[in-house]
Write a structure and sequence with these properties.
This protein is about 90% helix and about 0% strand. By secondary structure, the protein is an all-alpha fold.
């Protein structure tokens, strides 16, 4: 026999037990749902994270290479500062060489001027013989005049 009050109580107990059962089911399954969500997050985030890590490692290696290059450049610059004295010596030697070359040019130009006033050279410059049947004769005359001139200049230089 059920009382009317008992039927209300029975319904309330049933609802409460259903809710408790449902809550127990949620609580019991919640860790697996949490693990599922964690797995889903790891699956989505792992590949980009690995890619970023590879990129960071590559950048680190490049940066390390650039650091070595900079250290090498700094060492080279320090070595160049100690080579300043050698560069000054080279510069002085170059200045001396340029000065000596200019002196040699001046002496050669003076020598050519004195040779250019030779009577034989002036004479050979004015000799123009154009013989149609013997065209090489004028060249022979000029060559002979040049030989005489060179012999004369050797004689004057050896007497000085």
């Amino acid at each position: 026999m059920t009382f009317n009050g008992d039927s209300d109580l029975d319904i309330k107990v049933r609802k409460a037990t259903e809710r408790i059962s449902e809550n127990m089911h949620i609580v019991a399954n919640e860790p697996s749902l949490a693990f599922y969500r964690l797995q889903e997050h790891v699956r989505k985030a792992l590949n980009p994270m690995v890619d970023r890590r590879v990129d960071v490692n590559n950048l680190h290696q490049e940066l390390q290479g650039h650091c070595y290059d900079i250290e090498y450049a700094v060492t080279a610059l320090k070595a160049m500062s100690t080579a300043e004295e050698s560069f000054k010596n080279i510069q002085d030697n170059l200045k001396n060489a340029i000065f000596l070359k200019q002196q040699l040019k001046y002496e050669e130009s003076r020598k050519k001027k004195s040779d250019g006033n030779s009577v034989y050279k002036r004479l050979s410059a004015h000799i123009t013989i154009d013989l149609p049947e013997l065209p090489e004769l004028s060249d022979v005359v000029r060559e002979t005049a040049n030989r005489v001139e060179s012999m004369m200049s050797k004689a004057t230089h050896s007497s000085n």
